[in-house]
Amino acid sequence: MDLPEEAGPSGSGTGAVAGSSAGDKGGLSYADAFPSLPDTGRPALPTTSPWAARPAHTSRPALQSNIAHEKLVISYEERRLKSEAERFGREGESERSVCVDIQKETGVSINMTQNKDGSLTLLITGKKEEARRARNLALQRLQSQANIALNIPKEYHRFLLGPKGAVKQEIESATATKIFVPRMDEDSDAIRISGPKESIDSARQRIMQIYEEQSKRGAERIPIPKAFHPFVMGPNNATVERLRQQYAVQIHVPPPSVQQDEIGVTGEKEAVAFVKNELLKIYNDVAQRSKVLTVEVPRGQHRYVQGPRSANLHHILERTGVWVELPAPDSDSSSVTLRGDPAKFGQALNIVWSKANSVVRVEVAAPNWIHKHMIGRGGDKVRELSQKYPEVHIRYNTEGDRIEIEGPPNDVNLVRQQLESESKELVETLALQEMTVDEKFMKHIIGKNGANVGRLKAELGVQIRSQDGAKQNVLIVEGAKSAVVEAVKNLKERIGKMENERARDMIIDRRLHKLIIGQKGERIREIREHFKETNVLFPDAEDNSDIVTVRGPKEEVDKCFKYLEKLVKDLVVSNHRIEVPIFKDMHRSIIGKGGATIRKIREETETKIDLPAENSDSDVITITGKKENAEKARDMIQKIQNELANAVEVKVQVPNKLHTHLIGKNGRTIKGIIQECGNVRIQLPKTGETSDIITVTGPKADADKAAALIRKMADDHELSSFSLDVAAKPEYHKYLRNHADSIRRSHNVRIVFPGGEDEQLDVLTIIGKKEEVEKAKAEVDKLLKELQNTVEESVEVPVKHQERFLARRGEVLQEIERCAGSVGITFPWTAEVAASETVTVALRGPREAVDKARSLLLAQVQDWEAEISSQVDIAPRFYGSIMGPKGQRVNQIQQDHKVRIKFPERREEQRNGGGRNGGKENEATSEQESPLTNGDGQVKKEMVTITGRPEDVEAAKEALLALVPVVVEMSVPFDYHRSLIGKGGSNIRKLMEAWHVNINVPNPEAHSDIIKLTGLPRDIEAAKKGMEEQVAALDKQKEERALRSYRVEMRVDPKYHFKLIGRGGVEVNKLRKDFDVEVQFPRDSDGPDNADRIILLGYEDKAKAARDKIQSIIDAESNKVILEVMLDSRIHNRIIGGKGLAIRKFMDKFKVDVRFPRREDDNPNLVVITGDTEEAVYDAETELKRLEDDYLDQVADNSALSRYHAPSRYNEDSGDRPNNGSGFVIQGAPWQKHNGHSASDGNADMAVPSSGDTQEFPSLGNGALSPPLAHNAVSASRWAAPR
Question: Where is this chain compositionally biased, Basic and acidic residues type (predicted)?
Fold first, then answer.
């Protein structure tokens, strides 16, 4: 409830006095609390109740509105559109329409009235800018326009126009006039102003003001030859700047590139004349005593003579008074001209020669690819050189193998020596090698998101990137020489492995891809687990491709391919898909009420029927299921449409080969026909069907129009397309395919070979322009003629090699046939040549192919004849490691070196793990194999046999021995074992994966330093090197921890701890960041003896520096003035303010620190003020005292007002009430008065009154409703006498 403001903090005002007096006695007076209510019989009684009046609120700042009002009065004489017939109260219709147009243009409201004297009054309301614009438009369109002309000299017109006419436009907008300035080619000085009379006067005043200001200014062009401009300007333009500042003029000197023999001066006329005389005086003085001297300076040194921004030229002019003129940049001259006092030429020449020879330029030869290493990461090395030699400029040539250095001779020599040394070192330690990779292998070599090369980079520490530009199939390997060799070898091995793999492409409708993959990839996972050596690759979704690739070993790929063919066939049968275009407005009828119709069709046909969404543009209904069921569902849906839409079907016969052309790219052509003809549907034969019929469905007129368009497009395409069929036996196709690409490129035709589903397998088609097709057909006929001249020959091959030729389903023969072309190779049955040493192989085919096949056969025989066998002694316990998983390592060696490797048969006890004691003897002799003996008791060694060409056998032997693992022991301090293993063994697992070795760390109980490394020799060396690096890093970490553990203890009075910590820990965090130390303050558990201890941990020098910093803070705090002030704790929160904003502003204002007591402090009223000066501290104290007085008055007022509030819901017995007063107490009520006594006399304990008794409340309401009691009458009230 609001109270009068007069009851302020001082307690002035009647309301406050009554309240305080009543409060002293325990409550308000009855007259104040319950004033008499007014009625119609008499005026209301005056009252001093705090509730009787509302407070006078302080005035709030008014919000400034953006709405403006403009008033415009146009007299009758000035109205442009006035009419003689108009009378009072009848406005002209033309003027009203003008106002309407202005309202539309500006968005304002215009109220137009016509006065008795014929004048118009317009009240315009709207946004300020728009209201002003509307007023100007009304003046121009409704008020009579006048015209005047001002004769202003033409040289001042440019000042009236301003840049891009801005000044003229501003005057027109402000005065609602039109100003016409004559063109420069017009012979007139008159400026015409058009507009209302008042506006013309304003515009004329503005124009005359600009003219008068500009007429006081002067301008001069001083003829001074260009050669003497530097002397007039002075060194670094000092003379010109001095004159500009002294006389407030503008001096325009043409730039060096402009050959102009004059200098312009503008400003006040007197100042311009004086400056002109000064400049001419300087020029005449220099011109009389100056001479010219020409010297030859190599052109490459001119820029050093000139210096940055001609600084050297101005330096020479300042010291000698001689100006040095250099030839133009596009000139080939090397002559330098000195102009000035001849006595100073010698000194000037010395400076010129010193500047010319102050800089030299040399080149350092360095391969381009090491430039980045010499530049450093982020340019660190170049930045270091620049800081050490700031006058030297280094430029790395991005297109050549050189580095350019420019600067002082001595510094340049030092930098050159340093760069040459660094270049030599980098060339000796680093290497760069380029590898050409087949494009089809590139993405597999790089891996997804660079995973494969990224792994190689991490293992060997090399950089691998692809060549930019045209050579995108080139990989660049860069790094340490040994690492580059290893990386290149690894990449070549991967490429070789990929070359030996086979990939088969399978065309599967992309709609079936998800079904083959299965939900969450379950089905494809089963396929990959069944065919583990193969990889099934599906195209990306955005590729929109049907090709699925199966990659892996040939036999596994063939098996997987057959499996997928069967799977796809099953899926196609059960997922036949038909798309039926149905008019969009028919979909509701096909669905039926509550989906009854579509549900019935689904149940009867056992199909899945999908309709497009209502907001979709598509009108195609998709039916999925078995073929016969899907066709039945399609017929049922089409029947519903035909019955409801009265549609007709028009069939158009177009050759099947033209259907693709009619569809167009992404269906654009067929969509265009549908859009042009309206509500029609066009149905083409399904893919694979040979039908020529295209069905058009829709209203008769639309269907006929679409059919006509289709026929016309087919006829047009027929004229521009020509094809010929060529008969060729299927056995010739293989040979023809080898030559098809060259024919296509030569004649720009397409050659289509029949597929497995085609009926005519002996016909191929050539498509293109007629003349080109005929030429291509002639070439094909020529090839066929050669093929028809088939020859049969034979070749003798040793019988011992027949089995190898036929092994693995004749893999060798298939490769020979593929390389030779269309040739047949036939070996006789084995039984026919059992007693012969040679076998006759029959070759049949074209002469060229037969000759090539014979040479390939004989070459293969020669390779096999040259084979040798070599045995390698390898312990049987290493066989499994050498073979690798599923023999991959051995198979890779056989493929790489074209050899055969045979391991000895495993002995029975090795297979069964048996022995005389159930394998116990083998366990005991695991490190030493039990020997195998022959019949004579001699030990028979088990050897690995390698068969192949001699050079291949040796290479394979080396590769095989390189796979034999070795064990190496290393000494690693026991304390480092935990760090080496890592959390949960994560670190050591990463190391083993990176180095491809096994690391055996001894148990902690052994307390041993020996760690065993097991793996291949090349991997062991890398692991040893890496382990040494790990140990070195741990040593460094140990030393670092020791250096960072320097401890400094300080004893600091706890009263300073808060200052050191800062608000929110700001200060202590700053100390930690600046000095890189750990700062520990005492805790409660440290006890009272260490309550003042602060510990610093870090580097010794930084810890001591932090200690000094803390001591300086303490010294500064101890010198500050501290004052303790007693402030009532009830007003602390008000002084602090929300989130401490008020106290922070207070401390910033007085430059002091104010600390309030904490809850646990003994004295809750004690506030401490700290500051640098006594004056600031005492000023702060004075302000705090003033705030205390103001806030305490408010607390007192609030306490008094709380008496009027409704009783709170606090439990009085619990002591939770904020005010434990006696509540709302009334003094001097009628029921308290008895025989001249009141409650204040101690008789307040009376019976509770009845508010319905008029005698108990005589003054409530009118007071005239009941007669007053006699003076001596005895009251019947229960409260009349005390109980």
Answer: 895-911
Q: Tokens 């509730």 appear where?
A: 51
Query: Under DSSP, is residue 946 helix (H, G, I), strand (E, B) or coil?
Result: strand
* C-alpha to C-alpha distance for 1011 and 988, rounded to whole angstroms: 12
Beta sheet of 838-845, edge-to-edge order: 791-798, 838-845, 824-826
Element (H, E) at 1230: none
In 776-903, at which residue ranges do the beta strands (DSSP E only) sit? 791-798, 824-826, 838-845, 868-872, 900-902
Encode 313-328: b = buried (16+ Cβ within 10 Å), e = exposed.
Answer: bbebbeebbbbbbbee
Tell me the sheet residues that pair with 592.
none
- The tokens 């290893």 sit on which residue? 486
Inform me whether the pLDDT recorded for 57 exceeds 80. no
Pair type for strands 28-29 and 1226-1227: parallel
Contact at 8 Å (CB) between 1235 and 1260?
no
| C-alpha torsion 656→661→662→668, nearest 10 | 150
| Residues 279/263, Cβ–Cβ less than 8 Å | yes
Residue 1000: strand pairing partners: 1012
Here the tokens at position 1183 are 């302000």
| Alpha helices, H only, 789-872 | 802-820, 847-865
pTM: 0.31
Residue 1083: burial class (beta carbons within 10 Å; 0-12, 13-18, 19+):
exposed
Q: How far is CA 203 from CA 215, 273, 511, in A?
A: 18, 33, 79
pLDDT digit string (tens) for 1082-1116?
887 777 888 888 998 888 888 888 888 888 888 88
Question: 709 versus 542: which is more confidently predicted?
Answer: 709
Per-residue confidence (pLDDT) for residue 69, from 0 to 100: 87
| Dihedral sign (CA 969, 971, 975, 980) | negative
Question: Tokens 């695991």 map to which residue?
Answer: 926
Query: Across the strands, what pairs with 766?
Result: 724, 751
Residue 811 confidence (pLDDT) = 78
Gap between the Cα atoms of 873 and 360, Å rounded: 69
List the one residue out of 361, 364, 394 whose CA is nearest residue 379: 394
The answer to whether 541 and 493 are in contact (CB under 8 A) is no
pLDDT above 90 covers a percentage of the chain that reads 1
Query: The tokens of 686 are what?
Result: 């399904």
Tell me, rounded to whole angstroms, the distance of Cα 273 from its chain centroid.
Answer: 63
Question: Which residues sit opposite 549 in a β-bridge?
Answer: 505, 537
H-run or E-run covering 73: strand 67-74
Instruction: Measure Cα distances from 969 to 1003, 1023, 1027 in Å.
Output: 15, 11, 11
Instruction: Give the pairing of strands 535-537 and 474-480.
Output: unpaired
CA dist., res. 166 & res. 186, Å (int)? 22
* DSSP letter assigned to residue 684: P
- CA-based end-to-end distance of the chain: 37
Give the 3-state secondary structure of residue 300.
helix
- In the beta sheet, which residues pair with residue 1122? 1170
- 586 and 645 Cβ atoms separated by less than 8 Å: yes
DSSP code per residue over 105-146:
HH--EEEEEE-TTS-EEEEEEEEHHHHHHHHHHHHHHHBPPE
pLDDT tens by residue, 428-464: 888 888 888 887 777 777 776 777 788 888 888 888 8
Question: Is the CB of residue 584 less than 8 Å from the CB of residue 619?
Answer: yes
pLDDT at 824 over 60: yes
Three-state DSSP class for residue 72: strand
Quote the CA–CA distance of 82 and 772 in Å, as a whole number.
86
Q: Look up residue 899 and give its two tokens.
A: 């050899």
- Provide mean pLDDT across the span 221-232: 89
Return the half-sphere exposure (C-beta side, CA atoms, 13 A cut-off) of residue 384. 9
Range of weakest confidence among 689-703, 717-731, 1018-1032: 717-731
Distance CA 296, CA 730 (A): 87
Cα–Cα distance, 224 to 221 (Å, whole number): 9
